[in-house]
Amino acid sequence: MKKTIILIVIAMLISLASPRLMAEEAIKTINIKSAKFENNKIEIEIDTNEAYQNLELDYKIDNHKWLSEDFDNLITLEYKEKTRKYVHSFKEEIKFSKSLEIRIRPIINAKKGDFSNVIIFKYILNAKNYDSWAADFIHKADTLGLVTESMREDMMASATRLEFIESLIKALEYKKTIKDFEKEEVNDTKSIAVKKAYKLNLLTYNKDKTFGPDRKITREEVAVILDKLSSIIKAEDKFENKLKYDDASKWALSAIDSVIKKGMLLGDTKERFNPKKNMTRQEVLVTVLRLIEI
Questions:
Q1: Phi (first) and psi of residue 244, to 5 degrees
Q2: Which residues pair with 107 in a beta bridge?
Q3: Intra-chain end-to-end CA distance of the chain, in Å
Q4: Most-buried pick from 11, 99, 151, 288 (CB within 10 A)?
Q5: What pLDDT is stored for residue 38 in this prediction?
Q6: Angle at which helices 219-233 and 161-172 pack, to 10 degrees?
Q7: Rg from Cα positions in the chain
Q8: Is 136 helix (H, G, I), strand (E, B) or coil?
């Protein structure tokens, strides 16, 4: 009889202790052992061999807030038994110019644990030979998809006409897609961006219907294209024109004056416009980024 009573008491104590132990387990911190972010997919390995049915992912982009600061329920990670890793594929593309930070927390019996250690994925600039002042602009342009592959090898090199037009059209289509360009005919390039530029009348056909994609583009040529664009995007005058450009071609004079007043192109520290100078690739990216802000 005494033995039966003792067993009943022990069983009662275990039943009372179990919820408490489970609660303690729930608030146990789990740390991230390793993590990979690639092709918009996150893959996480934790520091324990125990498999958790509910692990939530929290993240923040650049200097913005953590997801958990706005939402109580976060992203539930999927456990892959074969690799013993937790994964999640984002439906919308995750874009960041500086960093992507992640952390996780377990949920056991509806109780949320503490957040883990933080893993930071830093943005690595995929470009070579650029000025320090241009780094942030190249970062931003790349996250927006404005950097063409040919630009990456040397950002200080002179941009070609094709590189400028492709970056320009990408910037314009950041807000609105350009349609009905298929009938445009260009004999020396298959670039869709060039066809779209002709469709918008940013470029003028010559008798041979050639574009000259590999020719370096000058600042006065860019000014003429941007002047035509200004009427489409309804850019307004904002500044007084104090720049010098006595060596500019006559056909570019009015366009240069127009884009300077609208802030679409700037001069150097000595207030010179330098119309005959080739525009570098990094300068092209700075220029097209301004268009998104207009």
A1: -100, 135
A2: 112
A3: 88
A4: 151
A5: 86
A6: 20
A7: 29
A8: helix
Structure letter (DSSP) for residue 252:
G
Give the helix, strand, coil percentages of the chain, each rounded to 5: 35, 20, 45
278/269 Cα distance (integer angstroms): 17
Pairing mode, if any, of strands 55-61 and 99-108? antiparallel
Burial (CB < 10 A; 0-12, 13-18, 19+), residue 104, is buried
Q: Which residues of the chain have pLDDT under 50?
A: 1-26
Cβ-based burial of 235 (10 A; exposed 0-12, middle 13-18, buried ≥19)? buried
What is the SS3 assignment for 248? coil
Q: pTM for the complete prediction? A: 0.65
For residues 227 and 113, give the distance between their C-alpha atoms in angstroms, rounded to a whole number: 58
Q: Going by C-beta distance under 8 Å and a sequence separation of 6 or more, which residues neighbour residue 213?
A: 160, 161, 162, 188, 189, 191, 194
SS3 273: coil
DSSP-derived pairing of the beta strands 78-80 and 32-38:
unpaired
Handedness of CA 260, 265, 266, 268 (dihedral sign): negative
